[in-house]
């Protein structure tokens, strides 16, 4: 693959990862509830979820490219038919609305714990920035999200790396603090599949349009795979980082901030 095509694929990959990594991920709560609360076996869960996201993301981007989709509606109607596709479309819109509310609320809590700003003011700030971003065209949005993601990776490596090397409890004792009451189910593999479905629903619209915007089929396809690899790296780092601060992670609203406080209290 030429350098230009490879750059385009990585640009899409970083944007895909940025879409998945929302406020719930950055607070550490998503990783805690879906994975870390299962103990060390959560590492296998993350690998399963990432493989699903790589394959499903690749297929969604490929379908968007082939259909030259201008929105997620076209792929849905091809996959499910006009009537069922319309029902799935409305369900997806309702689902995305709920995800947006959760992410905005998580951002408000992050502003409060990080800077002492009232959560409602933090929410207003995030909504304002999100509104300004949505005024841009799709390619610029991809560039912005893709540009932020490398910075996020660096921050995650620094914060989790310190905690991984300086765990509060030995990793051999982590399973003693596993709290299955915090998980969606008692089965790590089921929660991994659930998380993958949650993440894919969040990114499906983006993946469909991203595929149609790509200049070549291979760019869209590889971009989704690269994005899945980035997501797996970030999730593994945050997961092991959360495990390193057990059992405190089970008692705080923002485990990621607790990890950051270990570096600079």
From TrEMBL:
Keyword terms: Membrane, Transmembrane, Transmembrane helix
Domain of life: Bacteria
InterPro entries cross-referenced by the UniProt entry: YkvI-like (IPR038728)
TM segment ranges: 12-29, 35-56, 87-111, 117-136, 143-165, 187-211, 223-246
Name by which UniProt lists this protein: Uncharacterized membrane protein YkvI
């Amino acid at each position: 693959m030429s350098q230009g095509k490879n750059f385009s694929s990585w640009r899409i990959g970083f944007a895909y990862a940025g879409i998945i990594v929302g406020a719930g991920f950055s607070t550490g709560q998503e990783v805690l509830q879906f994975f870390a609360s299962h103990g060390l076996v959560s590492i296998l869960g993350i690998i399963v979820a990432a493989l699903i996201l790589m394959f499903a993301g690749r297929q969604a981007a490929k379908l968007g490219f082939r259909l030259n989709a201008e929105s997620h509606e076209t792929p849905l109607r091809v996959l499910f038919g006009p009537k069922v596709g319309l029902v799935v479309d409305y369900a997806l819109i309702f689902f995305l609305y709920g995800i947006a509310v959760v992410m905005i609320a998580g951002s408000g809590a992050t502003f409060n714990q990080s800077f002492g700003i009232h959560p409602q003011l933090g929410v207003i700030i995030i909504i304002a920035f999100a509104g300004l971003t949505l005024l841009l065209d799709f390619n610029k949005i991809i560039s912005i999200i893709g540009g932020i993601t490398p910075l996020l990776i660096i921050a995650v490596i620094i914060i989790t790396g310190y905690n991984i090397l300086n765990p509060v409890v030995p990793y051999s004792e982590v399973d003693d603090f596993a709290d299955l009451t915090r998980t969606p189910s008692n089965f790590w593999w089921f929660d991994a599949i659930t998380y993958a479905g949650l993440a894919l629903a969040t990114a499906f619209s983006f993946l469909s349009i991203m595929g149609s915007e790509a200049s070549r089929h291979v760019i869209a396809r590889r971009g989704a795979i690269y994005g899945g690899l980035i997501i797996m790296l970030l999730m593994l780092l945050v997961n092991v980082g959360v495990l390193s601060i057990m059992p405190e992670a089970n008692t705080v609203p923002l485990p990621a901030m607790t990890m950051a406080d270990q570096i600079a209290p």
